[in-house]
Each structure stands twice: as C-alpha cells, then as structure tokens.
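Posting this for the archive.
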Amino acid sequence: MKQFDILTTDKDILAKWYHLLTLGRAIDDKAPVYLLQSLGWSFHAPYAGHDGIQLALGQVFNKDTDFLFPYYRDMLTVLSAGMTAEEILLNGLSKATDLSSGGRHMSNHFAKPAWHIQNISSATGTHDLHAVGVARAMKATGHKGVAFTSHGEATVSEGYVYEAINGACTEQLPVVFVIQDNGYGISVPKKDQTANRKVSDNFTGFKHLKVIHCNGKDVFDSMNAMTAAKDYALTTGNPVMVQANCVRIGSHSNSDKHILYRDDYELSYVKAADPMQKFRRMLIRYKRFTEDELKAIEDAAKKELSAAHRKALTAPDPDPASVLDFVLPEPYQPQKYKDGLPLEKDAIPL
C-alpha cells in the first residue's frame, strides 16, 4: 500500500513540501543572477525537473542516523534535508561561513558535516565509494542507519560507480544509490552513454541489489519509492538502487547552452513537464488548498529568501591568507626518526 497520495497525505505535510519546492526553485532561479552581478555562484547546475525525487530524498534522510552524499545538482535535496536558504547562499557566494568548505570549494557543492551531509569531490561518481565506506562502518559497529548517495544517470559510466555497487552488494551494506535520470550527460544523450534505456538495467545481475523505479518528477511517487528504499535497506541491510526518471528543464550548468542541441519540441516538452507546477495544479484540482493559501506559502518563501540574501551578502569573505589551507595534508612525522631518515651510510644493511 502506498503511504503518500494527494487525497490522504496530511495537509500540514503538503504545505511543508510546497514551501520547500517554492523556496528551492526561487534559490535555483536566483543563483545565475548572482553570477551576472559578479557576486558569486561561478558554477551553477540547476535542479529544475528533478523536484520530486530531490524533495523525497531530503525528506527520508535522518540527520541523527543517516549519512547523505549529495551531488552538485542536489540543491533541493539538501534544502529538504534541513539546510537553510542562508546556508545554501553562503556556499553559492563562497563566504567564509559556508559550512561546506569555508568558501573554498566550488559553488553548488553543498554540505553540513554536523548533520552528516557530506562534502564531495567534483569528480563525478567518487562519492558512491565514500557512501559504501560509511555503510561498511555502520555494519561493523552495529549502527542503525542508511548511507544515501545521489547523482545523474551519466555518472554510471564511471568505474567508481561499479566498484561501489559491487562492494555494497558483496558485503551486503545499507546503501541507497539514487540515480536521477534526466536523459543527458551534459550535452551527450543517454543512448551514447549506456546500452540500456534505463541505466538501472546495467545492474540487474548484481546479487543482493534491490532496484526501485519511480517518476522523479512526481512528488508522491518519489516519496513512496524513497520510503520503501530506506525501509528495505534498514530491515535487510542490503543495498537499493532507485531509478528516478526526471527531466532537465534548463541547461546542464552555466557552462552549457542546451538550445544548441535541443529542438523546439523538446524544449517545450520539458517546460510543460515542470514537477513543481504539476504539484501545484494537483493541490488545487483535488481541493487540498485554495489559490490564496498557495499564494501565502509562495509569499512566505520569497520573504525567507530575501532575508537569507541580506544576511549572506554581509557575511565575511574567506581570509586570503587561508588560500592554501587544506590543499595538502600535514606531512607525516615518524616518531622513530623525528629528524628524518638516517643517511644511507648509517643505514643498517639488509
């Protein structure tokens, strides 16, 4: 039985979801404006079209027990998981108070380590291995939780992903791999990335791996899928893959121009498939909310973003003297030879 649907889901929950969807999209739309103003956000990968699955991933994440490894498009995911609009803006504007890296990492790399929302590398797919490593530690210590890792479908072209999934299946670890499939790896269509129309089919032969399919554009289908995935990982200790079919409404990032490789029909289709607008229409059609109630939620989201904007702009920039901090680790100092290894002439013959 499905836990979430438009008719029976509590109205307060629906209001919370719509607020997150509205606030997230407002931040997503504002990010490129900061770049145009030379204020920050030098890298921006819009999430619009992934709204359903990202909302759901953030909602099922528990900061007290789980670990989350989001990728660069997961803005709504981390907002849904509990990060504030201000914390996201601090990252985008590369401020010293950015929780991810003190303003030193690329923008759109969101993290809150105190909440187990982990900062990841820009090299796609590597964080799958980190999630599996955390899940291994969970199993070894008897910790009851789930490691979530998320990325696009083109990332499965990376060997890191296969290593991670193979390791999670072999050791039977509680990892949920979320594949946000929008059909493109930057400008490369999926058919040129993988032989299967659904990338999850690449992994159907992996023992102990459960695969769940959902419509990543639909809030309710995504919530039901992610809830089932987490429950399965917790109760069995085995890995799960969630294949979420999405659309990418805009370009891959601000370094891409999708109108160069998408025709007018496709551009019209992805715009019409906007998950947030679909959710809004459902709330009205099924009489769960009035137009005035939704407008009030939208106005509250705008005010929240405006307040976050004012605070983020006045936050301090990183100290230029710290530019080399954490670039390289401190060198290992052996205790036996604190002054360095002995000269060759003094070395003990083998």
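The beta strands are 67-69, 147-152, 175-181, 184-185, 188-189, 210-215, 240-245. The two ends are 70 Å apart (CA to CA).
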